[in-house]
Amino acid sequence: MSSRVQWVIVVLALSSLLQIKHAVAEQKTPLSAAIVITGDNATLQALQFYGEPRLHDLITRVPNAHQMYWRSARLCTPELQNKLELKRKALIVQLNLLAGIYQRNDKPALSQQAQLLKQQIQQWPLLATIQHGIEPDNLLGTPRDNWRLNPRYSHYSLVISDAPEGTHDVGLSHEMSEGERFEVDQSGKVTPITSENAWQLMLQPGSHVFTGFARSQLPAGFSDINHRAVELLRYWQPGKALKQPSSPCQA
Fold this sequence. Notes:
The chain contains six helices and eight strands, in the order H-E-E-H-E-H-H-H-E-E-E-E-E-H. Residues 8-14 and 20-27 have low confidence and may be disordered. The protein has one domain. By secondary structure, the protein is an alpha/beta fold. Strand 6 (181-184) and strand 7 form a beta hairpin. The N and C termini lie far apart (55 Å). InterPro entries: Caps_syn_GfcC_N (IPR046459), Caps_synth_GfcC-like_C (IPR010425).
């Protein structure tokens, strides 16, 4: 047997051993999760999984699953929540800078609007999520949606809320501002609201209507500030009002 063939055999053997070692480690290392149900059926349930759990394995542990409003479901991890909070902090810094520019340019009303928007965004109940809403009945029939819970995340929180009622205005006062407006529905879809489509737009229950600055009011370097606010708004936790804290996204 040539030395090259022997080398290939050794490499394949080592690779197999590493795969077995990794599989054994996953079997021994539990993956933690929690089910958080808010509203009338408030529940908090801590869970542990071994092996290679998938989304359906978590869904089957939800009590009274058939009664849940699954469009409100959010699946959060602390790592994703930390990234979302960093985006919030970056936007708050940008709004502080914008308020200062307006103040130096003798535009106190706009400076005040920037400060008010900053204060409001600090109080938004944001909850990061891997996906917006879940359709439990389709998971087993659609392997692509029944994805594996990855052990690289330290913890998963499945948060489910009651069905929403009505819509909610956030951002700047629409009566006081001629700024850009957007609808953000519970699925995370963003729809610009314009004079052309406003009359035919059917706002969905649970949607948030955001009013930002007019484009003409934004100085160079700040043209994306409305869109950055709307991107955060996609992660408003269903069932939460302004100033209410979002559900904890950790064990």
